[in-house]
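note to self: dont lose this again. the chain is below, predicted strucutre after it. 537 aa total, dont forget to put it in the shared folder this time
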Amino acid sequence: MKRNIKTPTSIYAIIAAGFALGAISTATIVSGTGIERAFAGPVATGSTDNVFDAPRLIKSASTESVSELKNLDASFANLAEFAGPAVVDIKAVQSRAQGVNGARIPVSEGEGSGFIFRKDGYIITNDHVVADADKVTVTLRDGREYVGKVTRAKEMDIALIKIDADNLPTLSFSDSSNVRPGEFAMALGAPFGLENSVTVGHISALHRAERIIEDRVYADLIQTDTSINRGNSGGPLINVDGQVIGINTAIFSPTGTSAGIGFAIPSNQAQLIAEMLIKDGKITRAYMGVVPETIKEYRKNDLKIDGGAVLMAVPSDSPAAAGGLKKDDVVVAINGSPVKSSVELRNSMLVNRPGTTVKVDYLRNGQKATASVKLENPPKEPSQPTQRQGRMQLPPGLQLPPGMELPRGFQFFQDETPGAPNLNDPDDSTPVPAVPNDGKPRLGVSAATPTDEIRKQFDIPSGTQGAVVASIVPGSLAARVGIQTGDIITQVGSVSIKDSAGLVKAISNLKKGQTETVTFQRYRGNTRSSTTVTVTF
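---
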């Protein structure tokens, strides 16, 4: 049941009061005369003793303005009081080891947050909060504890926990498509295990697209300056109406604590996944076989459309190609439902089932057209063999440019098939040469021109040109800017990279200390991210 929340009667009056107080404070600093302190400090009285006066209001701040500020203050407190009972603390324990008596011993314990969205005991959180846990314990605001049953959507980083309880306080989902930068936001959860914590901030930005965090792909995130730390994961980000606009998921921070840049999965995405998990117990995704990217603003204006998803790659063996779609087509609708972004195109693969035929409306060279595409089951990911660490050798088909070495500590997948060559020899202690410090600009990667085998290994679509990263020197420029093995470098400065030799040439033409941009792409299954970083060589 939704409770009434007190809100200020006039946001304009609040803003006006803020400007008035700011102007008064500035005047006090500049002139030092004519305005009394808001709160009196030590005041000389003619003796050596200091006397503290009682707090005094600034004379020029009207009673009405102060009242509005108090209303705003009370509104945030009411908001926290309303939302708090639906927020839960989650402890996930892995107990894989066994003691001398055969009892399972806890070997790992994680903590996060979540919130109740159905009064019959359904809780939503991040999948990474409960991943691979043997036991998940949920603690309610009133202190009750329950062991929960987990249903996961690993790829989406969403999980459901069902507890055996009823008539629980809940939070409702808001329509995250209506969220705007600058709006107030409140995060609730248990940062560093500090339960029932509340922080307030704003929405900083929307559609932070295709970020890859710990090997999970996030196609669309809300950015907020609301303080989020470890333990906030899975908790709600709410608006001033007490509705959930996002699931607090990650932070960008060089220190591991809040730096004012946090990310949340939008509520529309989370609600869609939650409803599918409740209904089917799993996520069923159809496969069209495209790499979409949200259309740029200038192209929307040129094409006179309000959104769309540009197909950056359409493999020749995909269902999309069989239906007649091509690279650079702009998809605007699927089965009559508008597609305004790459996220909406991906979500349509959740709504439509494998084996069904969908009508795809698109633009090609500005002309409208329609294609019929029969969706398929996603291709199975190849199983990954066991890893062994040692001195590195190149697997078949991977060629390094001249002068580039494999660093120690890089691992290749070792084929465990009897008789297969051992690519990683743990008994060979021959040192691997370090990257020479000869004053030349170096990115710190070993790269290769993509072959069919390499494309298959790293899910790189056919026709994609660039230099595939085979290894990364620890502590190098590449490592510091987040380049990973399997990424494909496509541009350095204004130079397009078509192969490994092109990357070597582009970097060799730079000067030590020169600053340039480096663009690299990353493919994971049906998703693609493109990142441009600025590097000083």
